[in-house]
Amino acid sequence: MPSIIGSTVVMKGELIVGEDLEIEGTFDGTITGESQDTVTVRRIARLSGKVSATVVRVEDGTNLENTVLSGCIRLAE
Prior knowledge:
There is one protein chain. This protein is an all-beta fold. The protein has one domain (3-72). The chain contains no helices and 7 strands. Strands 1, 2, 3, 4, 5, 6 and 7 form a 7-stranded parallel β-sheet that branches.
């Protein structure tokens, strides 16, 4: 089960995760996944910055303005 940044959460800074992560809220900064982690960005999320993980899953319609993604980028179902 992934950790979740909920829809009412607003975060700014650097986040290093050692497990799967789902983003529904607002994040401004850098998210780095270690080892075989998957970061899933939900449609309602608001991101600005950089997301780097082994797998980055993005829901269709997600606002990724001013965001850099790196890793294996996939469309989330």
